[in-house]
Every structure is written in C-alpha cells, then in structure tokens.
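hi! just following up on the protien thing from before. the input was this:
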Amino acid sequence: MAFKLDTSDGSRRIGTNLAEINIIPLVDVVLVLLLIFMLTAPMMYRGIDVNLPRAAAKPTAVEERMVLTVTKDQALFLNDRRVPPGGLDAALRQAFVTRTDKTLYLKADAGLNYGAVIETMDRVRRAGIERLGMVTEPARER
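and the predicted 3d structure came back as:
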C-alpha cells in the first residue's frame, strides 16, 4: 500500500510514499518483445522464390581446401604432406590439375622473414595458382 491510515502510536500519517520500483512487469514486457523479435526476424529475410528442377545426377562433391604451410625452418607442407623445396611447382601443378577451384591457402609462420614468404608466394603464382589466400589467427581482445 502507498500510505497508512492507522498507526500503532495513535498519530495518523497520510501520504507516505512507496520508494521501491517494481521492475517485474518491465522484465516481463522485455522478454515478450525479445521472443517476438526472435521469432519474426528469420521471416523477414526472404530470398527469391524459385522452383528448382529435379536432377537424377548426384550432387558434385565438395573439394577439400588446399593449404600450403611454411614452417619456421622454411619446410613446405601441402595438406600435411611434406614437399621438397625444389619440387613445389610440380607438386602444386599435380595437385591442381583436376581441381575446379584454383584457390590455395598459405599458412606461414610468424617468425619467417618477409622475403621468404614473398618468395613462396611468387613460386605459387608461377605454378599457375589463380587465387592465393593468407591464413591468419584472429587478434586477441584485451
């Protein structure tokens, strides 16, 4: 109650304020709004409706990514298989001869000097690789 009409000491106090705020209804409303937005947000994103044809052929297999790793001592690995330094061009040409995706991902150790990484990138380009991606580690937040 917001005020008292009768007190035990005989004096009458009228208009005593209630100083507490009841936040339970506010939390209820916020949770209901959150639920409504969570349910309706996926419905707002719609693509173009297209009836796709059916095909008896199997879907094409997804090719695994090709990763070239250069260690701190400049050893080369193509998808966990060691490659001799002089045979990188031949190994890349052989690996990409049947692939439709001509993308290679380069993982180089942070301790390597700039020239060694650029030289490896140049050798990859000379081997005929169309796209080269650099693999990095995400920055740590403080």
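The domain at 66-134 is CATH 3.30.420.270 (Nucleotidyltransferase; domain 5).
The chain has a mean pLDDT of 78.
cheers
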